[in-house]
């Protein structure tokens, strides 16, 4: 791939363009808002000049509702040898393209499983996709099978963005993202919405648990309305199942208030059941490098909120010969300090604890 056209310079489009430009591809940028395209160009994502002829690959990075029309227009004007989109739903846009009579042999639907709470070109980064799954949904139907050249261009794009290709059926993809992406967004927003009118005294008690659950609630509502409008059925099905669990959990909690010992026992059993099923589901979430999640030991260290403190603790861990597998920071409300949790292999925890103590760090037992 030597040339590419990126249509849509939001977070994903700009990140794709930055990754391609950084690896020597000549990238042309287009957006319905010229200022966004110029911003992306100023970041080094490419040029806003029109390409002189067809490029190798056109990447359509617009909201799901606009994918089919945008791809169809690009195909009609012969903008590229191959066309793909990066929207978070795949079945609907493909069916719309079929209805428009487009040549699907030159198109492949894709979805990089990466994102951020921020949006727009200024949120773009060339390493957004590194190590992340990138779903490809080639068509195999007679007369509309994705051309091998187009599939190869898509695979080259994934490689240049240093992502991991995953081939799926389009509708299977939509059911999967409803479970692992779209429903979590709504549930996070619903929990965060409880905080809107909460007493200030309650909000000041927020700890890492509520921060973890509500992190993605900071996402752009307009963007998510577009996404959910393109995949409402699968998301509604999953939410209906969650609602059934919620109803059962409410009944169990009410039973715990009963004066009847048997009812309290049933209530406790109901709560334990949902928590255990949660344990089992969490264990299936892939861990580091896509492997099964490891059982790491946590070394918790008090840390001041001053420049250089994070670098110092990581350097001290490195001097101790310990690899930090994961990290979490919990800020102390109203204080210039916090708690950093270093996740390490169990056999490394005692040595790291001793080494950090020697270097003056305060360890929480």
TrEMBL record:
Alphabetic keyword roster: Amino-acid biosynthesis, Aromatic amino acid biosynthesis, NAD, Oxidoreductase, Tyrosine biosynthesis
Domain ACT residue range list: 298-365
Biased composition (Basic and acidic residues): 273-286
Keyword Oxidoreductase belongs to the record: yes
Record region (Disordered): 261-289
Catalysed reaction, written as an equation: prephenate + NAD(+) = 3-(4-hydroxyphenyl)pyruvate + CO2 + NADH
Protein EC: 1.3.1.12
Pfam family, one: PDH_N
Residue span, Prephenate/arogenate dehydrogenase domain: 2-293
PROSITE patterns given in the database record: ACT, PDH_ADH
Annotated metabolic or biological route of this protein: Amino-acid biosynthesis; L-tyrosine biosynthesis; (4-hydroxyphenyl)pyruvate from prephenate (NAD(+) route): step 1/1
Source domain of life: Bacteria
Similarity field: Belongs to the prephenate/arogenate dehydrogenase family.
Protein name per its UniProtKB record: Prephenate dehydrogenase
Organism: Streptomyces cuspidosporus
